[in-house]
């Protein structure tokens, strides 16, 4: 048995219908019966009229109920539309906030990476002395270099002087050797005993000067 057969049987069993339709049909039949019936007893007519009023009140109540339900349905539809609009608005705002949060996260990552690079550079800078100290150290080294150059010049001047003195001494020795050879009083191997104190002092100073220079 399908649904159509079930509905058809219900209509056959209940010829007046169901629900509000049944009330209206009963009210209409009662009204027609009351109009077509000639009551001899006013009480029976009054009872029939009261019965119609009861059905009428029930129909009015059902109508008001249907109107209230319809109005409530409309209000619910409006409420659901508003909720749907609000949900769509919230979804849009949420997407916007998510995009903004992504941008902020990207910026935060960039800032963090820059800070890490700055920390590395700061550590490298700390390991090196400041520029003023480096400049002062450079000036000190320049002064030391200039002093060393002056010392070198002084030593070179002293060496030149000692070379000249030694040259004079060697010339004097050669002259003395030639003179002694001529007289035959001195052998070819000369000793330091033939030198006077001044000559020995000159040779000693020469050795003292040459040793630091060789170092």
From TrEMBL:
Pfam families per record: THOC7
Domain of life: Eukaryota
Cell compartment(s), UniProt: Nucleus
Keywords: Coiled coil, Nucleus
GO CC term (a single one): THO complex part of transcription export complex
Family per record: Belongs to the THOC7 family.
Keyword presence, Nucleus: yes
Coiled-coil parts of chain: 91-165
Protein name as annotated: THO complex subunit 7 homolog
Annotated GO biological process: mRNA export from nucleus; mRNA processing
